[in-house]
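Title: Prediction job returns without error message
Component: structure pipeline
Severity: low
Priority: P3
Assignee: unassigned

Description:
Job completed but the reporter wants confirmation the result is attached to the right record. Sequence as submitted:
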Amino acid sequence: MRTLKAIFDFYLDASIHVAIAVISMAGVTFHLLGSSSDINLMGFVFFSVIVCYNFIKYGVEAYKYLIVSNAYHKVIQMFSFVCFAFAVYFLLQLNRDIWIATAILGVLSALYAVPLLPSANNLRNLAGLKIYIVAFVWAGFSVLLPVLDAGIELHWDFAVTFIQRMLLVLVLILPFEIRDLQWDDKSLRTLPQVLGIKNTTRLGIGLTLIFFLMTFLKDSIHQHEIVLRLILSVALIFVLASKKRMQSKYFVMFWVEAIPIFWFCLFWWTENYF
């Protein structure tokens, strides 16, 4: 049992779970496009997310995470270097448009943690900006890259889907913001710091409703999209209402981040059995 717990903790601590969540959202985009998933793109997104998140978690935000020993930290670092090599390999298999988009998203991700100048703040330390950077980058990896990979024009439905994905990520981040309220520096001006937990929860519910209603702005709606977005919205509202559970490491790190995986599984299940 102890070994299984250690493996599960590594799965969470090494950002494997969050990487699966991101490729699940990319998989949903491919379903919405009516296109087959590209293994090279999915491989690149998976490994690059692991590298990016581990850099931030164990560099910029290390004080929030309990690393039991330096040896454990080094194992995660070595794992991240291996993932970096795989990310580069898969990126080289992709087209030029993907490279350009990745470079832009990569710069944003880097500036989130590393200041442009030694005396400057990184983007994370600009009050209130952190959550929007993460939402934009996740939307970029899970919507923009699949659209570019499929060779589809950036039309109206793309814009709606991109904004919806940003809203989804914003809502998914809120439980982490609430959980981290006790650790976050007040200068960050996170939403729970500015609005309080109750108003942040209300905001999350409001964003969830906008996320769902925006579906009706699209010119072309996937046959199962309305029902599956409704189910997803109910799951998000349930999480936001679970205030006490947000203090649990496993509830936030596993169950909240599993929501996009659950969403992708719903798409896969409905398309294969309906």
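Comment from assignee: result matches the submitted record. Confidence is low (pLDDT under 50) at residues 62-68.
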